[in-house]
Structure formats: structure tokens, C-alpha cells
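Researcher: Let's run the pair from yesterday's discussion. Sequence first, then C-alpha cells, for each.
Model: Starting with the first of the pair.
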Amino acid sequence: MSGFREAVIDLAAIRGNMAHLRELVGTPHAMAVVKANAYGHGAVPVARAALAGGADWLGVADIDEALALRDAGIDAPILAWLHDIDADFSAAVDDDVTLGISSALQLQQVADAAAELGRTASVHLKLETGLSRNGVHENDWANVFALAAALEQGGLLRVDGVMSHLSNASAYDDQLALECFERGVAAARTIGLTPALVHLASSAAALRLPAARFSMVRFGITLYGLSPFEDATSADLGLVPAMSLRGRVAHVRRVGAGAGVSYDYLWRAPHESTLVLVPLGYADGIPRQASGTALVHIHGKNYPVVGRVAMDQFVVNLGSTGDADACGVAVGDEIVLFGDPATGAPSATDWADAADTINYEIVTRIGHRVTRRHLNG
């Protein structure tokens, strides 16, 4: 039986997804991206499961996320690539965290930290190839590559990788970015750098753009069993969704025709109906935009969310099935908001469609009040 609010994470699905993805893609190296608390799934247990499934690198956004993995005893290679101006590069270097570098300033800051520690830092140079986010612009490649080569010769750092990211905007845009990236890698090698790890592709490109695979790919959303594509489901890709979001019925109420439900009375009962109260709301990451559009799974059937999703709760309509005893739903019964659609439950993608967003957001935004329970560790 589920708890009042809980996300059940099947670590066997994480292991299996990683093993399946590695087999599909076949690159020498594969990174499991566990930033943002592993897309809401729990960074430490997911990292361990992904490594057991065949990942040989872990990816996070910032240094604090990397250090938390180290503090948990995880000694696998970790890359962190998004840094504040006051980022603690010394702590990262001291804990053998590889750093994604987007500017000459960051490169020098890392080298200074390494010098103070008497260590050699590991870095991956991040290139700007069209997203207009972080990364070294093509106009600055020559200067940054030259500085990196000089610092490498001085023993302060090693350029172990070159990386970038695709927009997934269109095949044409991704091809332009791929060509830009290839120019950058060639320029880095021309100046004397020898990065062993060259990575551009995350989940979507890893599966559908073989030219972008290089020596490593980064698996994010697919690691969690969700599809990055609009035209393919998890099952189509051979993946199993790892998260099932569950709760318990908090109240069952019979209402008459015309009864208003939740704030603003977006929905009024068209006839006598049985309503169920679900104790999750937008404070827990349930999208308010899914008010009146999403479904939940109770006793083997799917029922609609009605009325406005509130901060702590929302309402589900069981229809005109009689009183609470007759409809077979009671306080304390399990509700599944989303999970593996093979069980008959809605998927995270179904909830994303209901909220006009993406499945990445649905799982990642699940709040701290929701207990994570990990199975098959």
C-alpha cells in the first residue's frame, strides 16, 4: 500500500534502461545524467543503479550535486558543467570531480584551485554550438584552446573531454550544430589537445542521430524510462518508466447535481456524483495546468481530475456510481497518478500532455513532501 504521498522508484527499471540503451547505442562510454535529484527520482540510489546497469560516467549540473554523490561514497567519474562565479572549484578538484568549462575565466579559476591543492584538475571544454547558452563561442576557441594547452603543459589540468548540446529544434539545426562541434573538436586537436571523451548527444540524438554519438553519449530522460520523442512511447523504445507517483484517498464524498468543486468552480457535477479527494497539489509538483484534464488510476480504472488543482489537493470524479460503498473506493485506498502505462495507469507523458508541458518537467518537479521509496536496490 502506498503512503499518503509517495513516489515509488523501481531501481531495476533504471538498471535495465541503462543496459538497454548501452546496447542500442554502442559507444565506448555512457553517462547517466542525475542532475536535479536524478530528475526527481533520487540522485544517490539512481546513480548506483545506473552504474550497475553499465554507465561509466555520471553527469550533474553543479558542483554541490557532484559533492553530494561523493559524500555518499560514489567514486565513479562525475562531470559538473554549470558554475556560479563563486563556485568552489577547490572542493571539486579535491574530490576528483571533472569540470565542464565554458570560458577562459573558469579555466583559469580551475587551474588556480589545482595549483593551490597541488593537484591536476580534469576538465571538459564546453563549446557553444547554437543553443546560445553556456559554452565557448567559436570566436573564442583559439584563445581558450591555447590557454588550456598551456595550463595542461604546466601540469595544472588535463583536457579530458570536449562537449556540447543539441537543440533538437530540427534535423537541419542539429546538423549545423554537429558540424560546428566537429570544427571545434578539430581545432582543439590541432592546437595539441587530446580529449578522449567527445560528447554531444543526449537521449534524443543518441537514439536517432548516430553521427552525434562520438565516444560518449549522455542519457537523461531515457534513463528514467521516458521517451524524448512525440512519435514514440517508452514501450516503443524498449524502456520501462521508473517512477510511479501514488497517494491514498483522503476523503470520499457524494454530491448532488450542480455541486461546485474546488476553487473557481471550474467544474460542477452534471448529475449526482461520487468524488474522491487526492492529497497532492501544486506544492508537490502536480501541475495546476492539468486541472480538469488529467486522469488517475484507482482500483484498476482511470478517472478524471475535476475542478482546480489546489496547493495540497485535488478532486477526482468517480461518476454516478452510487455511494462510496457501492463504488468500492474508501478512504486509505491507493491512487496512482502516473506510472508504467503497461499497468493501465496514466503515464508521466499523459500528465504532461494534460498540462501542455513535457514529461521531463512532470517527474522533475515532484516536491520534497513526497516521500521517495526505492525498490529493487
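Model: Moving on to the second of the pair.
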Amino acid sequence: MKSLYVTSVERHSGKTATCLALGKRFQADGYRVGYLKPLSLQPWRVAGRVADEDAAFAKEVLGLAAEPWDLSPVVVTPEFLRARLSGEMKTDLLQKVQTACKAARAGQDVLLLEGGGSLREGYAVGLPTPAVAARCSGDVLAIVKYRDEVRVLDDALTARTRLGEKLCGIIINRVPADAAAFVSDVAVPYLERQSIAVLGVLPEVRSLEAMMVAELVEVLEAEVLTEHYSPEELVETLTVGAMTAETVLSRFRKQTNKAVITGGDRIDIQLAALETSTTCLILTGNLRPSPLIVKQANEFGVAVLLVRTNTLETVEAIERVFGKTRLGQPAKLQQFQKLLAEHVDLGRLYKALDLEWRTAQHHDHQGTGALPHTPSA
């Protein structure tokens, strides 16, 4: 029985997508796969019970028999946290997680444990990532989201420091095209010399990070003002229109499939947005726009959303969820599976986990040529 704990250095790095894509690959190779998310900071109600949304999705994608609340044994709600900190709740949570791991392992060949959204999570309730990984997992895979040249190195080194010998490797995710040469030619060789196995480097794919307009409407509790409304249209970038129309127009022209957030009274910004590649306008402060704006938006196929919150509050609400690889659409998971196969050295990962590469000959060697097989020692 093998177990792999998949975690990330920071939130919205692609951890859930990696976990599920690996689970599908293990299943394709004939392995029975279990899943557990030991700690969740994102309560979600399903069938009247508190669980984790990612766990519910994992149940569906991997075809698991267990219920979502069994796959997420510790879900931190505000009430849970207060009871824990006040001393009212004396449950040994680490033991509870271990018991859940034992149940999730039953009858499986591989157990995937989805770790916290960052290496800082879990300390307040006694379930920090290093402790859970040490107690429940054989190996740890860390996802490092590319931010800049220095940070990608610091994040990888931080993962090694926190996780120690449990770390079997990292995957660097969301690498922009203009940073690809630095990552492959400089960062990867350096990290390998530091005994950090870089198992893959995934390019930035904006469509994977995009949100549907319908998701924005739900998150913002927005009113749709236009007749044109395509719920599944994608927003790939966010921009705030808070400057002069002349200044903002040049920036708008550089961004495609964007949502423009601006005050309902800023007709100049709204018109500038409609002249460029804009998916939707988000008008803040509950200020209704000119009928001219609504008319032109309908003509250009741009949805106009009206929200009660001010611009800052609106941006903060979106940023809490934007950038997460939201996998509710099957096409997104399939796209990520393809990325994983093309850019991750799966043969090297299998070797680290001591798993037999059962059907490699049927995959046209996908996933084995993304990076040179450099020894991690």
C-alpha cells in the first residue's frame, strides 16, 4: 500500500487538480485509488452535512464509495475553531485523521492525501502539514506556483526545509512563457543540486484559471443587467478601471477575455472596456449605468453585472476564489490531465513511490520526457 501526500506552498497552486489528475492516471494504470483530505478550512454543506468541496468532487471523479464527510474528517468551521481554542473540544485530531487514513486505505493500492493550501495551514488546530505528512504518508509531493525568479527558488527550498526527507519531489506550476527558459535552464538544475527532485514544470494556461461568468454572479450576488448573458463564458483576467479613460485604454487593449471592475458612474471607463476584449463589466456601488452602456454591451455581447459592494470589497471577494483551478467543468480536468502527461516525469514519480510502471508502453512514453531524469541525490 503506497500513500502520496500532495500539498502546496501557497493557495491556488493547482494542488487539487494535480491530486485528481494523478488519481485518474493511477486508475488508468490499473491501481485501486483512495483519497482523503485530512484538514479543510473551506466548509461546504452536502446532504445536510459539513464536508469539503474538493473531497466531494474527488468522490465523483475517482468513483469512490465513501461519503464526502468521511473523506474530509476535520473541517474547520467558525464554531469548531472557537470550541477548539477555548478547550471545549479535546478530541485528538491527529488520531482522528489517522483513523480516517486507515479507513481510506482499506482495499486500495494507492492513497492520495490532499494537503493544506499552504505550508502554514493547520498549526492552530494541531494539524500542520509536516506533522500530518509524517504520521500518515510515505511520500510528499509539493506544488510550487511560479511567481518570480527568486520566489520559485525560495518556495521550493522552503518546502524541502519544512518537509525534510518526506519530500519526494516538486512540480513547478503556472510558468509563463517568458520565464520558461529561466526555470528549465537555471532553476531546475540548481534545485536538483540541492537534492530537490523537480518532477515537472507546467506552463501557464490561462483558461484553467479562468472563472465562468455564472461563478462571478454567484460569488458577488450580482444582478445581470443585459439580455446578453452566457453563463459559461470565461473570464481569464481581472482589471480595475480606476484611472482616466486615456490611461486605462492602453492597458485594456493588452488584456483579453477580461472582467472590468469599475464604478457604475464611470461611463468613460465602461465605454473603453467595451472597445476591447471584455467578457463582462462588473459595476460596483449599486450604481446603475447609463442605458447607452447596457445597449452597447448587448450589441457587443458583453454581460453587465451590478453589485452592491464597493470596488475594493468586490475585488477582495473575487480574489478569494479567482486563480483556483476550478474543476467543475470536465473539460478543465481533461486539459490538466493532458498537461500532466506531457510535462511531468511520471516514470520518475512512480519510481519514487516504488510503483510498477504497468502500462507505460501504452502511453506512447507520455510523461517521461518532460525533464531529463536527473538523480535527486
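Researcher: Give me one sentence on the second I can quote.
Model: The chain has two domains: 2-204+327-362, 209-319.
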